[in-house]
Every structure is written in structure tokens, then in C-alpha cells.
Design a protein that fits this description.
single chain, alpha+beta, 16 helices, 14 strands
Length: 519
């Protein structure tokens, strides 16, 4: 166990400060975050591995859909206008499923933010994940914080040139792999990989990789925290999502103040001393360059690395963890009232502790039940209802559709025997990756018969039509009604389609036009 004087002192300068706001167009001041270790850092490693693994490996997963459909598990087939996601196939007219998923993502983001703050920003945002990855490369090549500061301030030598070049080359490789992985979602991955390196891929593939390589390299390697501070709208929006019961990374100054580096001298003088030893470890590990002790700030992404750094210092001093912790505003305010005796006086740490140095029973601590409040249930209900609605619609949707377009010119033809004929363009949509035999039947219009162009069979009220897998088949159909069966200028009837194997059916109500003299 160490005392205050044995704790390493770090003198970082806050790049983003709650007290002094930086002008938007000022030159970027570099941040050299120190490597953190602890439970939150380990959790971020796990999240990084999972998210990057999903992104890079998903296009290579296979899913057998039979001989008539692609076997890539996740595929945005722009050419054929299909979206494949494992056993789900989305057609262009079913884009409302994608819209529903986006709405679910938005509501889910509101739910997460209202309960645990900016967890998306701190752990799963692509900008955060790739910056973490780039920092891993930077530390591996240039060293930890002090080494990087020294290298950056030093003159350009052969060693510095080699280190910097190596770092940027690896960054560019990662950025290129990011762009390369993205294009594999839009075509068969193994095929496109071969075409890409042989120069036979479509130009849009090379353009996409170039653009994503440039943006990933720039945002993740060069701009870093500026993307979150100046480009992303979420820091401004998330304030409206938080309330007094939302978890945020908080410096508990009700136990940390007054901070001092010379606790023994201050105690000997009879002054109160808080737990914070002003070592600045929390500032040194912050990738956004802020001091969490200044309170909540727009730049804070709640990555919780400052919690790990502070907990490490508290362990060395033999003090309780949690000087910086996830806490709610309501708990913080209650503890501040206790530490200041309910008034405007300065913090007195002795008011929150008993005589044996333990925290008083009146100190408010977080409990998981506190995040389950009406607002949380409303968001959960909205998210669940949208998801259940999409699932129900997905499980009950028709995979056989029909659409009919009446000929506009002429709308009807009078044949030599006096009967009236109308022409229709009928579209049969087979939305499964298997060939089907579709029965097209005429409903209504007594005495009517239909004939299909290209089908050399006598006119009838029903035909069997072969439809290719996962395709739209267009038919030109003529419907003829004898003159004595014409009972009006316009009569309605139906085209009914049915698959006898799957028992799926659908129908379309159409109009049969006739001249006025036929009535």
C-alpha cells in the first residue's frame, strides 16, 4: 500500500475543457492517451473484437438457399434488387422491413442512452472502435504516452521516420481492409475478391474502397476526437435523452474534495482531505482529452477508462474504489447534499463517513432497479412492439404476388362475332428461390374466357404457368366476353393465382371495359 507521495504524478493538459471552450477552427492539439487497464478496458477489448469480427467476417459466412439463390449469408444484391439475411429475403417493395429495423435501432439507442448514458459512443460506435484499433497500433510501434510525446516533440531522425512511416502504413492497411470488407456485402465475397485483385471488378468497387480507406484513415488516425466533438450530432442530442436516473461517468467530488497531493500535511493542519490525490491519471487515459473532475461535458463519450485509472490509484492507496464511477444524477445530488450539510458550504468528506472511515449508511449507492422506471418501460414497450410487428409480418407475408395493368389504348376491342376483348399485362411474382407452377384463374364475368400470348392452348378460364425461382414473370392476357354477357360499361372481376404445392394464393380485382352500345 502506497501513500499519496508515492503515486505517480502526471501533468497532462486538457485539450477539451469544460471551463475554457476551444474555438471550432483552432488547430488540433494532439492527445496522447495513456494505456489503461481494468475491467472497463477489458470490456472494450471484448467489444472491439466482437464488432470488428462481425464486420470483417460476416460477408464470408455461407447459407444454403438451394441452387437458384446465392449462398452468401448476408448479401445486399443491388443488381437483382434483393437483400439476403440468412433465411430472410427482402424485396424492394418490402423495404419497410429495413425501415422498421432502423426505427428499432433509433428507439434502442434512446433506450440505452436514457439508462446507461452514451454507452453507444463509448463502446460500439465505429469511430470509437477504429480509433481504439489505431491506438493499439500506435502504442505497439511508438510506445506509451510518454514515449509518444517525446517522439512527437523530438527532431526528425531516421528512427522517427521509420516509426511514423510504419504506423501510417499499418493504418492504411487497416483502412483499406475496412473499405474492402464493405464491398463484399454487395457481391459474392470470394468471387469479388478474385476480381478485385485481378483488376476485373466493377469501377464502383475500387471507388468505394478508395473512399472508405481515405475516410477511415482520416477519421480514425488523424482527426480522432474531433469527429466526436465537431462532426457527430449525437453529443448534442443525447442531452435530451438523459434524466436524473440515467447512468453517466461521474467524478464523485462529495468524497474526492478537497483534493490534495499532501494529505498528511493538510490533515495535520486540521483541514479536511478528500480521496482525490490530484494525480491526473484520469486525464492521462482520456481519449477525448478532458478532465472528468470538471463535471459532465459534451466531449465525454463515457468510455469509463478514467474509472479504471482512478480505481487503480485507489487500490494502491488502500481506499475504496468508485471515486470516479457510473452514477445517476439523483444519487450524486443526494450525496452532495449530505457532504455539504444541505447547504452551500464546501464539501466535507467527514460528513459522508463514520468514525471508522467507512461510508455512512445515508450515502446513496446505485442499484440496478433505479434504471427501471416509466421512461425505460415506455422505450422497451415501443422497441418490443415494433420488433414483434415486424416478426409477425415477416412470418405471415405472402411469397406469391400478382399485379395487373389494363391496356390503355385501346381499352377494348369488338371482335367479328360481337364479343368484347380486353387486354391486360399480368405480373406474377415468385418470391422464393424455387421454381413454381402457378395456376392463374379467372373469377367472375360469366361466360368469359382468357388466352395468354405465347401459350398455344385453347382459351379457357384457368391456366398453369411456370414461374422461375425468385423472378417476376410478365404475361400478356386477353379476356373475351360474349356480347350477351355484357351487362355494363365497366364490370369487375378477379385474377386469382394459386400454388397448389404451398397452398399460397393471391388475387387482383380488375375492370372489364365495354362500349356503351353493348349494354
Amino acid at each position: 500500500m502506497l501513500d499519496n507521495t508515492q503515486i505517480e504524478r502526471i501533468e497532462p493538459t486538457t485539450v477539451n475543457s469544460a471551463k475554457v471552450r476551444q474555438p471550432m477552427y483552432a488547430a488540433r492539439r494532439k492527445i496522447f492517451p495513456k494505456r489503461a487497464s481494468g475491467s472497463f478496458r477489458r470490456f472494450k477489448w471484448i467489444v472491439m473484437a466482437i464488432t470488428l469480427g462481425i464486420y470483417y467476417l460476416t460477408p464470408w459466412l455461407r447459407w444454403d438457399r438451394g441452387p437458384f439463390a446465392p449462398d452468401q449469408a448476408v448479401l445486399l444484391d443491388v443488381v437483382n434488387r434483393r437483400f439476403y439475411f440468412f433465411f430472410i429475403e427482402i424485396w424492394p417493395q418490402e423495404f419497410y422491413y429495413v425501415a422498421g429495423l432502423l426505427v428499432m435501432a433509433g428507439v434502442g439507442l434512446f433506450l440505452i442512452t436514457s439508462t446507461v448514458g452514451r454507452a453507444w459512443c463509448g463502446y460500439t460506435c465505429p469511430q470509437t472502435v477504429w480509433v481504439d484499433l489505431f491506438l493499439v497500433v500506435e502504442r505497439a510501434i511508438e510506445g506509451d504516452r510518454n514515449a509518444r510525446i517525446k517522439l512527437d516533440a523530438g527532431p526528425w531522425t531516421t528512427r522517427k521516420l521509420v516509426l511514423r512511416a510504419s504506423k501510417h502504413v499499418i493504418w492504411l492497411v487497416i483502412a483499406a481492409a475496412t473499405g474492402g470488407a464493405w464491398i463484399f456485402y454487395f457481391a459474392d465475397a470470394p468471387t469479388l475478391l478474385g476480381e478485385f485483385f485481378t483488376g476485373t471488378a466493377a469501377p464502383v468497387a475500387y471507388i468505394t474502397v478508395a473512399v472508405l480507406t481515405a475516410t477511415t484513415y482520416t477519421f480514425g488516425g488523424l482527426m480522432r476526437e474531433q469527429v466526436c466533438t465537431y462532426m457527430c450530432p449525437w453529443p448534442r442530442i443525447q442531452a435530451a435523452m438523459l434524466d436524473e436516473s440515467s447512468l453517466t461517468v461521474t467524478y464523485n467530488d462529495w468524497r474526492g474534495e478537497p483534493r490534495t497531493r499532501h494529505a498528511k500535511k493538510v490533515l495535520a493542519a486540521g483541514h479536511p482531505v478528500g480521496d482525490c490525490v490530484d494525480c491526473n491519471a484520469c486525464v492521462a487515459v482520456c481519449p477525448m482529452g478532458i478532465d472528468i473532475r470538471d463535471g459532465q461535458q459534451l466531449e465525454c463519450i463515457t468510455c469509463a477508462l478514467c474509472i479504471d485509472a482512478c480505481d487503480g490509484v485507489m487500490d494502491k492507496l488502500g481506499k475504496a474504489r468508485g471515486l470516479i464511477s457510473y452514477a445517476t444524477l439523483s444519487d450524486y445530488n443526494a450525496n452532495m447534499m449530505l457532504a455539504t450539510a444541505g447547504g452551500p458550504s464546501s464539501v466535507d468528506p467527514s460528513l459522508v463517513r463514520t468514525d471508522d472511515g467507512l461510508f455512512s449508511d445515508r450515502v446513496a449507492h446505485f442499484h440496478i432497479r433505479k434504471i427501471f422506471r416509466p421512461r425505460t418501460y415506455v422505450y422497451m414497450a415501443m422497441w418490443s412492439l415494433i420488433g414483434l410487428g415486424l416478426l409477425f409480418s415477416l412470418l405471415t407475408r405472402d411469397r406469391l404476388e400478382i399485379n395487373v395493368l389494363h391496356d390503355r389504348n385501346p381499352q377494348f376491342v369488338t371482335l367479328s362475332d360481337g364479343s368484347i376483348r380486353n387486354g391486360y399485362t399480368v405480373k406474377l411474382l415468385n418470391m422464393i428461390p424455387e421454381p413454381r407452377t402457378i395456376i392463374v384463374t379467372l373469377g367472375g364475368l360469366p361466360g368469359a374466357e382468357m388466352s395468354i400470348v405465347g401459350v398455344h392452348l385453347p382459351a379457357d378460364r384457368s391456366f398453369a404457368v411456370q414461374v422461375e425461382p425468385d423472378r417476376l414473370k410478365m404475361l400478356k392476357i386477353f379476356v373475351r366476353v360474349p356480347a350477351d354477357q355484357i351487362h355494363g360499361e365497366a364490370q369487375t372481376f378477379t385474377f386469382r393465382v394459386e400454388d397448389k404445392v404451398s397452398f399460397e394464393s393471391n388475387e387482383y380485382t380488375a375492370t372489364f371495359n365495354a362500349p356503351e352500345i353493348a349494354r
